[in-house]
Structures are given as structure tokens and as C-alpha cells.
Amino acid sequence: MTPITPPWRAWRGLTISRAPWVAALLILAGVIALLLHISATTMDYSRYNPEWNGTSRLFQAMDDRGAIMVDRLDGLPGSGDCLLFILAPEGDFDAEEIARLRLFLEGGNTVVFVSDREDENTLLIGLGSTIAIHNENLSSVDRYADHPASVLAFPSQKGTLGTGISRLLLNNPSFVEGGDSVFETSILSWIDKDGNSRLTGDEPLQKYSVVAEERHGNGTLYVIADPSIFINVMQNPGEGNENAAFSDSIISRKSCLLVDQSHSRTASGPLVIRAINVVKESTIHKMAVVTLIFLAISLLIVTRRKNHD
Questions:
Q1: Do residues 148 and 141 make contact, with C-beta atoms less than 8 angstroms apart?
Q2: DSSP state for residue 224 in the 8-state scheme
């Protein structure tokens, strides 16, 4: 007669035989958790930064709309009906890139250019634009926080970018001259030349444009003089904060949404973080990495068991 194995022994044997695989799964879960943890950065404007100064919230919204990330401007179409979003650029655009952008713009597409740096005026001139960015200490009595640089901007004309938005919250913005004003400060605004955060006699009150538009051939150029509108903390929906709605009006304006990653600070991040996020954003890459990790752990367990036997 075949002896009957006591149930507690059968359970014990099952536990021992499965223990290496349970360990493998736990190790795999730990590795994945670690990769997720280190796949973030704290760099200003980075799409990989989930903190207050990053743009992860905006990029999630753009990913949900099927945005295409553009690593090289020479691949832009010469004609069509796309919107190219250039946020917080750094570095110089060379002559070939400027020529390609101009062809893209005049071919019927839309460019939304967001910067508070006067260095970008070289690009704007190359595009044939009359809009210029002025990086000065713009302040206003009409503000949302207890600091004159927390400026409020209001729509200055109808039927353009940001339709339905009653105001924007700005943070140390620059201002623009030229083109047609889309959003501007109230008349209770000034340039704080001496930096004392107070209005003085040689600082006249007037309106300042912070968003302007301009027609170029069959296309439209928008220049926004404050990239901080789009960081996470400024995108938090709340009472009186319509910045997220403004962002949505931009990224939903065209069915073809292109996002510059060739010059934008939103692409900033250590190489390892960018590599990890490529994996995170691709289902095929995710499956491949998980499979490789699991196989490596399994091989290690089998090898150790053979050595033990």
C-alpha cells in the first residue's frame, strides 16, 4: 500500500519548492519599484520631475492627447495643420533649424513659443517676427499672492488662444512687445527698476502684454513670456487658477500636436532617467525588461540550487 503523505508535509514541500519563485517575484517587484523611484528628477521644467517645479502634469495631459515628441526640427513638415509647442528653450537655434521652423510656420502650422529670455529674440527675428521678449522685473498691484511679481494677466482680445480664460497666474514673468496682444496685465502694472518691490515715481503704470500672436503666411505664431505658467504647482486647478485650462486650450487646439524636445528644458534629465522613462513609456520595452530581470533571477536561483545539491 502506498503510504499517505500527511497534509502538513505536503504543504511544507510545496512551500519549499515554490520558495525560490516567490523570492524571484519579490526581487522583481523590488527592482521595478526601485526603477520607478529613480526615474524622476528635480530639474526645473523637466517632464520627468513630478515636484512643484517640473512639468510632469502637463506632459501627462499631452501624452493622453497623443502628442508626438520631436527630437530634431529638420523633420518638421513644411505644410499642414499641426501645432508645435516649444516650452522653456535653452541653447541656440542654428540657421538651418530657424529656416525649418519658418517653413513650418508659413506652411499653415502653428508655433507656440514659451520663453522669458531675451536670447530667444534672435530666433524670433529669424522667423520674421516683430515680437520681442523683454526680461525685466514686471510687477503689478493686481496679483494673486503677497508679492508684486505674482502678476495676473487678462485677455485683451477675443477669438484667439485661450478663449474662455478670464485670467492667468504668472510668476516673475517677462513681457513682449509687437504682434497682437492676447493676454496683458492690468493698467496697475510697472517695471520695478530698483527691485524694491514698491512703485516709485520713475516707474510709470501701464499695461504690459505677456502673450502675443502674429500671422506668418498661412500659419500663426504665439509667444508667451512666462514658462512658469506650465510647471506643476501653477497647473493645480483651484479657485481663480485657470492655468490648466489655458494649457488644455493650447494642446487641444490642433489634432496634430508636436512637442519640441530638441531645445526644451522639459527634456532635461540624467541619461539613466531618460533611459528608464523610455522603458516606462513603451509597453514592449517594459515587457522585455521584466522578462530579462525574471530570467536572470530564475537562472541565479537554479544555479544556486544546483550548487547546493
A1: yes
A2: E
Residue indicated by cell numbers 512643484: 52
Alpha-carbon Rg for the chain in angstroms = 27
- Please calculate the CA angle 298-299-304 and round it to the nearest 5 degrees: 100
What's the CA gap between 299 and 288, in Å, rounded?
Answer: 16
Report the number of secondary-structure helices (H) and strands (E) in the chain. 7, 13
**Per-residue confidence (pLDDT) for residue 16, from 0 to 100:** 45
DSSP H or E stretch at residue 125: helix 121-126
Taking only the tens place, the pLDDT of each residue in 99-113 is 999 999 999 999 999
- pLDDT, residue 7, reads 47
Q: Return the closest-CA partner of residue 117 out of 260, 227, 229, 280.
A: 227
Task: Please state the pTM of the whole predicted model.
Answer: 0.78
205 Rama class: left (phi>0) / alpha (psi -120 to 50) / beta: beta
Q: Using CB atoms within 10 A of its CB, is residue 292 exposed (0-12), middle (13-18) or buried (19+)?
A: exposed
**What are the pLDDT digits (tens) for 79-89?**
999 999 999 99
Q: Do the beta carbons of residue 170 and residue 209 sit within 8 Å?
A: no
Q: Cell 541653447 belongs to which residue?
A: 91
Three-class secondary structure of residue 85 per DSSP: strand
Q: What cell numbers appear for 224 in the block?
A: 508667451
Which of 87, 223, 229, 214 has the alpha carbon at shortest distance from 152?
229
- Among the listed residues 216, 210, 227, the one whose alpha carbon sits nearest the alpha carbon of residue 129: 216
Q: What CA–CA distance (Å, rounded) separates 260 from 258?
A: 7
CB-based burial label for 189 (10 Å; 0-12, 13-18, 19+): buried
Three-state DSSP at 274 gives: helix
Given a contact cutoff of 8 angstroms between Cβ atoms, the answer to whether 225 and 175 are in contact is yes
Which ranges in 38-72 belong to alpha helices (H)?
Answer: 56-64
Mean predicted confidence (pLDDT) in 194-223: 95
CA 210 to chain centre: 20
How far CA 92 is from CA of 96, 122, 169, 263, in Å, comes to 11, 9, 28, 8
